[in-house]
Amino acid sequence: MRDWQSQAHVKHYCKYHVVFVPKYRRKSIYGTLRKEIGGILRELCRQQGVELIEGYAMRDHIHMLLMISPKYSVANTIGFLKGKSAIRIFREYLQVKRNFTGRHFWARGYCVSTVGLDEQMIRAYIKNQEREEKRQEQLRLAGL
Questions:
Q1: Cβ(52)–Cβ(38) under 8 Å?
Q2: Does the pLDDT at position 1 exceed 60?
Q3: Which of 27, 82, 86, 119 could bridge across to 105 with cysteines, CB 3.0–4.6 Å?
């Protein structure tokens, strides 16, 4: 059964699978910040009134399953999350490092897809993404 959300004049079930990457897909810096980035994104979602249902930080990208109220656009919500998280990452963890041009941490684009009846499949995909990626890499190295 779906968990519908309510506001004054609307009942909604608006879930989105969102993926975004750091600028130039930098893995070395991003790998060291995985846990911190997760905490920052959870806090920003809470501030914005967005429910972070599932999330996982990979070495070079982020997967999130979000429930976004219809009063906010997906583009504005993702812009808020990427912008504010970049500011906090630079301020708290990278202090004076300016290795990203113009202090950009995230790449410009993102991938978003609506979630319908296949929510459980998407949640499992997000949880098992890293394990599956390692398995694919091992197959590639074995020459299969």
A1: no
A2: no
A3: 86
